[in-house]
C-alpha cells in the first residue's frame, strides 16, 4: 500500500496520507514535576544519548531543510512540492521543540548540549555553513536522504514495546514519540527530491556507506565525552554495563542490518512498510483521545 502511495505521489496523484502534516505543538519540560538529572530513569548512557541527539537535532534538521531548498526550483511535480513544504514545516517544529528541551538540559548541566545550541550569526554557524558550501549540493541532499532513513529506522525501533517500556520523563517520551511519528510521515520526501532531480544511485549509496561506518562510533564517543562531563555519571562499571545493554537491546541490535537495505540499488524508503505502525501512533497521539491532543497549539 505504501509502495502504491509512493508511486501515486511520484505520478502526481495525492492520497490522504501523502502529505506530512505540520502540527503546531508545545511541550512543557519539568512541569509540574521537575526533571531528574538522568531522565531516562537510572540509565546514564541512554540519558546522555537522548541529550546528545536532542542537542544535534536543531542544527542537523536546519541543514536538511537547506539541502532540500537548494533544489526547490527544480521540483516541478506539485505533489512533491507540497510534500517538501510538509517536510520543511515538520523539521522546523522539531528544531523548535528540541531547542526548548535543550534549554532545559543546559540548565540541568549538559555542556555538550550547549555546544550544539548556537545562534544563526554565531561563529559555529558560519563554520557549519562553510563546510556545507564546500560539499556539492547533490551530496548534501544525498546526506539528508540517508539521514532520513537513519531517523526513520530509529523511529520504528523507538515504537517497539520493549523500548516504550523503558521508564523515563513522560514529557521527554512525548517529544520523542511525536518526533518519531513525524519522521515516519516524511521519511521518503528528501529521497524523492533526490530522485526527482535525477541524481545518481552511486552517490546516494556511497553517502550512506560513509554514514553507516562512521555514525555509531562517532555517537558512542560523543556520548562517552558527555558522560565524562557529568560527575554523577562517573560510575564506570554501571556505565559499561548499561552501554553493553544498549548495544544488545532493541534500539541498536540489528540496526546495521536495517540500515544496509538502503544501500541496495533501486531501494525506496517506502519499501519498508510502516503504514500500520504510523496509523497506530497517529491514533495513539493525535486521535480523538490522543495523548498529545492537549499539547497542540
Ligand atoms: Fe525531525
Ligand atoms: Fe526528518
Written overview of the protein:
This protein has 297 residues and is mainly alpha-helical. Helix content is 65%, strand content 0%. It is built from 13 helices and no strands. The chain has helices at 2-10, 44-69, 78-108, 111-116, 123-134, 137-158, 161-164, 170-185, 189-196, 201-228, 236-248, 255-260, 275-286. Helix 3 crosses helix 9, helix 6 (137-158) packs antiparallel against helix 9 and helix 8 (170-185) packs across helix 13 (275-286). It is globular and about 50 Å long. The two termini are 32 Å apart. Residues 1-16 have low confidence and may be disordered. One fe (ii) ion binds at residues 91, 148, 151, 183, 186.
Series of secondary-structure elements, N-terminal to C-terminal: HHHHHHHHHHHHH
Uncertain runs are: 1-16
Structural classification: mainly alpha
Q: Which radius of gyration do the C-alpha atoms yield?
A: 19 Å
The small-molecule ligands in this entry are: fe (ii) ion
**Termini separation:** 32 Å
Please provide the count of β strands.
Answer: 0
Helix content bin: 55-70%
> How large is the share of residues in beta strands?
under 5%
Overall 3D shape = globular
What kind of sheet is the major sheet? Answer: none
The averaged pLDDT comes out at 93
Q: With helices defined by DSSP (H or I, 4 residues minimum), what is the helix count?
A: 13
Amino acid at each position: 500500500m505504501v509502495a502504491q502511495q509512493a508511486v501515486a505521489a511520484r505520478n502526481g496523484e495525492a492520497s490522504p496520507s501523502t502529505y506530512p502534516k505540520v502540527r503546531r505543538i508545545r511541550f512543557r519540560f519539568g512541569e509540574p514535576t521537575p526533571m531528574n538529572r538522568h531522565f531516562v530513569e537510572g540509565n546514564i548512557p541512554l540519558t546522555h544519548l537522548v541529550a546528545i541527539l536532542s542537542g544535534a537535532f536543531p542544527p542537523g534538521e536546519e541543514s536538511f531543510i537547506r539541502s532540500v531548498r537548494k533544489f526547490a526550483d527544480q521540483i516541478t511535480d506539485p505533489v512533491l512540492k507540497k510534500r517538501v513544504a510538509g517536510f520543511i514545516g515538520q523539521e522546523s517544529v522539531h528544531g523548535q521543540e528540541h531547542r526548548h528541551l535543550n534549554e532545559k538540559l543546559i540548565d540541568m548541566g549538559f555542556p555538550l548540549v550547549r555546544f550544539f545550541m548556537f545562534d544563526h550569526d554565531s561563529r559555529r554557524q558560519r563554520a557549519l555553513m562553510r563546510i556545507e558550501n564546500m560539499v556539492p549540493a547533490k551530496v548534501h541532499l544525498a546526506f539528508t536522504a540517508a539521514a532520513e532513513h537513519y531517523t526513520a529506522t530509529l523511529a520504528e525501533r523507538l515504537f517497539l514495546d520493549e523500548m516504550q517500556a523503558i521508564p523515563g520523563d513522560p514529557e521527554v517520551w512525548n517529544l520523542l514519540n511525536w518526533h518519531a511519528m513525524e519522521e515516519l510521515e516524511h521519511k521518503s520526501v528528501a529521497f524523492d527530491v533526490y530522485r526527482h532531480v535525477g541524481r545518481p544511485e552511486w552517490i546516494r549509496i556511497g553517502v550512506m556507506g560513509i554514514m553507516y561506518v562512521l555514525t555509531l562510533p562517532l555517537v558512542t564517543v560523543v556520548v562517552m565525552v558527555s558522560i565524562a562531563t557529568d560527575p554523577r555519571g562517573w560510575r564506570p562499571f554501571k556505565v559499561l554495563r548499561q552501554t553493553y545493554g544498549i548495544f544488545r537491546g532493541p534500539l541498536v541490535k540489528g540496526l546495521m542490518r536495517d540500515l544496509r537495505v538502503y544501500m541496495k540499488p533501486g531501494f525506496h524508503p517506502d519499501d519498508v512498510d510502516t503504514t500500520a505502525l504510523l496509523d497506530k501512533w497517529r491514533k495513539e497521539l493525535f486521535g480523538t483521545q490522543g495523548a498529545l491532543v492537549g499539547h497542540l497549539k
